[in-house]
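User: Could you go from structure to sequence for me? I need the amino acid at each position, not a summary. Structure tokens:
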């Protein structure tokens, strides 16, 4: 996005952020949230603090302090953002469990590692977030997400301390993170929708079982090599929407 385009959106962006950043408290903190968002929106390959501050003409240290030291809770901001998405995107069809990868050149971003990068279609140095998308036939938007932390990040205590990982952070698999984002959406009482996911999640019997326990219909891809004994044969009293996984090819 160019500076000219961003300026044309000034009123809409201000209106969008007014309620969204209210849980951050102090007006100064909310102003820096706006500055950071502008830095993300503007054109430029690098989205780290220094190059973004240069694009928007902001003080590097002040922006760094906002991101690294400002005491505000992210969950309420996410909650309000999810409600905005639900309100804006009409006629939703499904919840999609997906992964978003962020290619990285360095090794200091939290969770970065050599792993499959969907953005590039290959193994690469990147961060990966597991996300729940509110999706219609025309539009899809993430409403809840969790950063995946590879085991090596939790085993390297010096590295974890350097990036200020919360004490007691434990390893969680991508399927565990997927269930966390689903539970968060359920806790917010967002409208329930069928869950769609690829074979990485569909092959996992415990993931499918967890969806059934939450009374969520689903259609997930299952690879032909998935062992047949992992499928449960439902009795006739089982609701049709909670029976076998339905492969989406």
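Assistant: Here is the amino acid at each position, in order:
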């Amino acid at each position: 996005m160019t500076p000219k385009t961003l300026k044309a959106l000034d009123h809409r962006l201000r209106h969008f952020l007014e309620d969204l950043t209210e849980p951050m408290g102090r007006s100064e903190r909310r102003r820096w949230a706006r500055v950071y968002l502008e830095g993300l929106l503007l054109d430029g390959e690098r989205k780290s603090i220094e190059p973004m501050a240069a694009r928007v003409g902001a003080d590097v240290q002040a922006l760094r302090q906002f991101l690294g030291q400002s005491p505000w809770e992210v969950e309420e901001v996410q909650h309000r953002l999810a409600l905005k998405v639900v309100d804006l995107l009409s006629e939703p069809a499904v919840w999609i469990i997906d992964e978003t990868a962020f290619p990285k050149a360095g090794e200091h971003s939290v969770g970065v590692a050599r792993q499959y990068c969907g953005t590039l279609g290959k193994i690469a140095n990147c961060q990966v977030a597991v996300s729940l998308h509110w999706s219609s036939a025309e539009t899809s938007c993430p409403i809840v997400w969790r950063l995946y932390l590879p085991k090596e990040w939790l085993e390297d205590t010096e590295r974890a301390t350097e990036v200020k990982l919360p004490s007691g952070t434990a390893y969680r698999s991508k399927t565990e993170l997927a269930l966390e984002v689903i539970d968060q959406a359920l806790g917010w009482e967002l409208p329930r929708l069928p869950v769609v996911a690829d074979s990485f999640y569909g092959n996992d019997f415990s993931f499918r079982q967890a969806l059934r326990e939450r009374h969520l219909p689903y259609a997930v891809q299952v690879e032909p090599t998935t062992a047949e004994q992992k499928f449960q044969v439902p009795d006739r009293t089982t609701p049709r929407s909670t029976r076998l996984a339905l492969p989406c090819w």
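One structural detail worth keeping in mind: The chain has eleven helices and six strands.
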